[in-house]
Write a structure and sequence with these properties.
magnesium, cell division, Rossmann fold, GTP binding, binds magnesium ion, metal-binding, binds guanosine-5'-triphosphate, 7 strands
């Protein structure tokens, strides 16, 4: 997949306000500060496209970016940001759940995991919930540049293996870094594969 053009489209406070043009979309979710917005910028080779911040809780709306005038990347707010108020947290959780469950155009949800940490309950519960809800998703490990040598790969494998207690078939996963662009081609090729698969299905 070659990205020729990436542009901000719209920020929406709820799923009913999202674009209505029926283009396929790929969304990014994960704990606050895991690197969702940075990954979108890295994939698009477009600094500043999605707003990033060293402070958690930067993205608070559903942000659509139109790619090659054909499909969307979607930046979602992070979950589990402890220091926001309970009301705000509930509001964000509801926004995320509605988007994930109701958005027909959602071709794949990427769940981002910081590669440095052990499996956290909040991520695990979210993933189990996606499975129960039949949402198509895959895992993206972020910040691989922060680990040296083979540690990124072994941490990712260990994390994935922990899913085996409940998951008969493991979802696809990718190891990435927005700093050195690790994993960029793999993620973009995977997106292309999904788009082609859906287009072929529709042509049948
Ligand atoms: P919220 O919108 O607050 O939920 O955060 P987010 O998940 O969008 O994270 P964001 O992309 O804003 O990045 C958070 C911080 O992590 C920033 O300081 C980034 O520079 C840093 N960061 C993101 N990706 C990477 C990476 O691959 N490597 C390194 N070293 N730092 C990263
Ligand atoms: Mg963000």
């Amino acid at each position: 997949m070659i990205i020729k053009k990436s542009e901000f489209s719209i920020s929406s406070p709820s799923v009913v306000r999202c674009p209505e043009d029926n283009k396929l979309e790929f969304a990014f979710i994960g704990r606050s500060n895991v690197g969702k917005s940075s990954l979108i910028n890295m994939l698009c080779n477009h600094k500043g496209l999605a707003k990033t911040s060293a402070k958690p809780g930067k993205t608070l709306l559903i942000n659509h970016f139109i790619i090659n005038n054909e499909w969307y990347l979607v930046d979602l707010p992070g979950y589990g940001y402890a220091t926001t108020s309970k009301t705000m947290r509930n509001k964000l959780e509801q926004m995320i759940a509605q988007y994930v469950l109701q958005r027909r155009q959602l071709a794949n949800l990427f769940v981002l995991i910081d590669i440095r940490h052990d499996q956290q309950l909040i991520d695990r519960e979210f993933i189990d919930w996606l499975g129960e809800s039949n949402v198509p998703f895959s895992i993206i490990f972020t910040k691989a540049d922060k680990l040296s040598g083979g540690r990124a790969k072994s941490n990712a494998l260990q994390w994935m293996n922990k899913l085996e207690d409940r998951w008969a078939e493991l979802p696809p996963y990718f190891i990435t870094s927005s700093e050195d662009k690790t994993g960029r081609e793999e993620v973009l090729d995977y997106i292309e594969e999904i788009i082609q698969g859906i287009e072929n299905q529709e042509a049948e």
